[in-house]
Design a protein that fits this description.
It contains 8 helices and 7 strands. The protein is α/β, with parallel strands linked by helices. The strands form 2 sheets. A 5-stranded parallel β-sheet has the order 2-1-3-6-7, with helices on both faces. Strands 4-5 form a two-stranded antiparallel sheet. It is globular, with a radius of gyration of 18 Å. Bound molecules: flavin mononucleotide. Flavin mononucleotide (FMN) binds next to α1.
Length: about 230
């Protein structure tokens, strides 16, 4: 499978969230060899969308001639897009949001009703694409924290999406937390293996991965003790 990882963390490979993403990919690779390419979005020249809509009327060419042209080609050549990002103000970091906005050339102005909502009709065929969101965050729980980002992801990619949210993710970069992060990453590898084989992750396993690694109060006390 051709997998494109869009790493939205400005910390590149040092990203807390990328620990989870790499473990997931390791699990997928255990099931079958995968062709993975990772883009550190912070290193790319991606202009903001100006909202001119010319790309939606002219067959898909944006007025900006920047790295987004090759990224769109890579997206179209992929089977799975992994959006790996830290939660910033309950959403995705700005460089990754700029990339998301700039996927507009894949759609036309024409819209159709699907169930209760409208969506644009594509001007490229990306029907085989599947979408995975992997997001880490600094707070110790997932209950409301990830709701806006997950809602955006579900609406943008209504077909074939899976969402993994991991609270307390700075612990992945803390060697002293290995006693809890390593078992968690083992679960993530298991999830990756499952996903590669079946295209999904068991609900119980997903819930375990998305739960705090240590009690919320303990995590908050550790963070507060360092500041
Ligand atoms: C600008 C900014 C906004 C943030 N907003 C949130 C937030 O809304 N909720 C949260 O739990 N953590 C928030 N965080 C913390 C990060 O999500 C957290 O540090 C995460 O582990 C960083 O992941 P990374 O290393 O993959 O970039 C924010 C961090 C920054 C720098």
């Amino acid at each position: 499978m051709k997998i494109l990882v869009l790493n939205g963390s400005p910390k590149r490979e040092l990203s807390d969230t990328m620990h989870v993403t790499r473990a997931f990919l390791d699990g997928m690779n255990e099931a079958a060899p995968q062709a993975v390419h990772t883009i550190h979005v912070i290193d790319k020249h991606i202009e903001y969308c100006t909202g001119c809509f010319s790309c939606m009327r002219n067959g898909g060419t944006c007025i900006h001639d920047d790295n987004m042209r090759e990224i769109l080609n890579e997206i179209l050549a992929s089977d799975l897009l992994i959006w790996s990002f830290p939660l910033y103000c309950y959403g995705m970091p700005a460089p990754l949001k700029a990339l998301l906005d700039r996927t507009l050339p894949l759609s036309s102005m024409a819209m159709q009703k699907v169930g209760e909502r409208y969506e644009h009709i594509g001007q490229a065929d990306f029907s085989r694409l599947r979408y995975l969101m992997i997001s880490g965050c600094g707070f110790p729980n997932s209950r409301h924290n990830f709701e806006p980002a997950a809602a955006q992801f579900r609406l943008c990619f209504p077909g074939g999406h899976t969402i993994i949210t991991v609270p307390e993710s700075p612990m992945f970069n803390a060697p002293e937390a290995a006693v809890v992060t390593e078992p968690r990453l083992a679960l993530v590898r298991q999830a990756g293996k499952q996903y590669a084989k079946s295209g999904g992750i068991d609900t119980a396993l997903l819930n375990e991965i998305c739960s705090p690694m240590i009690p919320e109060e303990q995590y908050a006390a550790i963070v507060n003790g360092r500041v």
